[in-house]
Amino acid sequence: MRRILGIDPGSRVTGYGVIESNGIRSVHIASGCIRVADKKFAKRLGEIYRRLSEVVEEFKPQEMAIEQVFMAKDASAALKLGQARGAAICACVMAELPVFEYTPRMIKQTVVGSGGADKDQVQHMVKHLLKLEQKLASDQSDALAVALSHAHTNSTLYSLAKAGGWRR
């Protein structure tokens, strides 16, 4: 079993989720949201870095997976999201964790089976796959979806490599 930290970055709310997985079976270890909305932007980035460093220290993941930035209508929001991702990635790199990145579409495809799935579908599948009863915040379930996507994708790639790769 590998311990994976999934991160759904945001400049105001950053979700995190820690799972253990062998690529087939996954278990929820911890998850939550880092809320930093009431601070100046530079302070928010510092807080994301500091609090994710604490999560890494407490739960000792072996790998980190994070959602890639997508270009929304507002370029300014995309830039802020990219900076929040940078703070999160730095916290994990400083802890010497390997970092893996996934597009939102790939995460949805892996967890739900459809790259166009909505947030409710993602949350439903996350709760089902991890056998969770409690209500999850949207950012929290998205972070767990990132971790699950990494666990399943990475396991498939590892199995293919072990078997000699694609064969025609």
Q: Could you describe the 3D structure shown?
A:
This protein is α/β, with parallel strands linked by helices and 168 residues long. It has one domain: 2-Layer Sandwich (Nucleotidyltransferase, domain 5), CATH 3.30.420. Helices cover 50% and strands 21% of the residues. The protein contains five helices and five strands, in the order βββαβαβααα. A five-stranded mixed beta sheet has the order 3-2-1-4-5. A hairpin with a 4-residue loop joins strand 1 and strand 2. The two termini are 31 Å apart. The model has no long low-confidence stretch (mean pLDDT 89).
Which properties best describe this structure?
alpha/beta, Nucleotidyltransferase, domain 5, 21% strand
Q: Rounded to an integer, what's the Rg over CA atoms?
A: 16 Å
Look at the structure and give the CATH class.
Answer: Alpha Beta
CATH topology: Nucleotidyltransferase, domain 5
Query: Which percent range fits the helix content?
Result: 40-55%
Main sheet: strand order: 3-2-1-4-5
C-alpha termini separation: 31 Å
SSE pattern, N- to C-terminal = EEEHEHEHHH
Mean pLDDT: 89
Structural class: alpha/beta
DSSP strand tally: 5
The CATH superfamily title: Ribonuclease H-like superfamily/Ribonuclease H
- Beta-sheet strand percentage? 15-25%
The best one-word shape is: globular
| Tally of individual helices | 5
Give the low-pLDDT segments.
Answer: none
Mind describing the biggest β-sheet?
5 strands, mixed
| CATH architect. name | 2-Layer Sandwich
Number of domains: 1
